[in-house]
Amino acid sequence: MERTYKIIELVGISNANYEEAIKNAVTKAAESLYELSWFEVVELRGSIDKNQVTEFQAKLKVAFKLIKSQA
After folding, report:
1. Of 36, 37, 47, 40, residue with least CA distance to 13
2. Residue 42's CATH number
3. Could you give the number of structural domains in the chain?
4. Which residue range is the domain that position 12 belongs to?
5. Which of 22, 43, 52, 68 sits at a 20 to 30 Å CA gap from 32?
6. Chain-centroid distance, C-alpha 6
7. Mean pLDDT of the 40-66 span
8. Minimal CA–CA distance to 64: which of 21, 3, 7?
9. Which residues, including other chains, have CB under 8 Å from residue 44's CB and lie 6 or more apart?
């Protein structure tokens, strides 16, 4: 069986932690993409305000399966 995947980059953001940032990105992608297959974390970063971590950001590569068109 032949399969082809498209890879996109996303940045998930959370005020809590990196895990939530990753989940937020995947959950949002699933609202408009089908057949999500895997993700890879390529970068972690965050924001600092007044010497406190205020935001966690996770940059992901997310793959989804391309489906045959119904044309």
Report:
1. 47
2. 3.30.1660.10
3. 1
4. 5-65
5. 43
6. 13
7. 97
8. 7
9. 18, 56, 57, 58, 59
